[in-house]
Design brief:
Number of helices: 11
Largest sheet: 9 strands, mixed
CATH topology of one domain: UDP-N-acetylmuramoyl-L-alanine:D-glutamate ligase
Shape: globular
Distance between the termini: 30 Å
CATH superfamily of one domain: Ribokinase
CATH class of one domain: Alpha Beta
Order of helices and strands: EEEHEHEEEHEHHEHEHHEEEHHH
Strand content: 15-25%
Helix content: 25-40%
Radius of gyration: 18 Å
Number of strands: 13
Structural class: alpha/beta
Length: 309
Amino acid sequence: MITRLVNLGNVIIDIVAEVPVLPERGGDVLAWQSALEVGGGFNQMAAAARQGLDVAYAGALGHGPFGDLARQALQAEGIATLLPDAADDQRDTGFDVVLVEASGERTFVTAVGAEAGVTSQRLDHVEIQPTDALAISGYGLLHEANRQAILGRLRRLSSETTVCYDPGPLGHSLPEQVRDVVRRRVDWWSCNEREASLATGRANAAEAAVELLARLRRGNVVVRVGMSGCLLAQRGSEIVHVPGVPVTLVDTTGAGDAHFGAYIAGLAAGHDAETAARRANIVAALSVTRRGPAASPTAEETDRFLTGS
């Protein structure tokens, strides 16, 4: 049973610019719209919180205008912060530049900040319960300090704690020994079809989902396939395609995070995996009809969509 989501990912600031097309190398293009948004792991947490799940952030926040912006956004969503401040790390929260093309596709360039400063000593102050869902990301494991702290904590977790992992676009580049620790402990692995292909070498999303499942010691797999929905690969069951919701795409930023956050909230609400995936598909679909990275709907909006009211 899941009663709380604890996120160990990275909350960063998204500097979003909407452009007609990406400029050629050395070129320039005028953005027709821009925004400064809190993103990264915040997207997943906001999606879960808006679906009614208790959520806390165990990652690091910076000291400066970006860190202040992140704290305000977390507070507004009712998300607690658990990690004690580091007196010797005065960096601000990091940021990424998000270029959103007219098609809705997005491209990122990330500048690392205080979120890379999670240490074992700081993380030891965070209490993680057997009834928690602990969310980790490939982004967090890219940073050496975070990696050692997170992997060390994974090895000491209660076997009842639900570990949720999203590799992100760079998860396949982690050292093999790091990926092996995650594969041995993860309960739910969620990624998009590109990430599934990079992790397995399988171009077909269904084949990649089955291959991922075979590599996990105890976990199950969700592979997101855009507007087509997602694939569920669970132990002892046939792979299931949960259909998506056709919508007019505006901005895909944060859609995968919204899907996973809503999926975890669905499991916490007592739904079976297929029902939770159906709700997550709706949450992700509604989020891409809105601008900004944390655009996921509330539980009430999701329910209204499900009932057609």
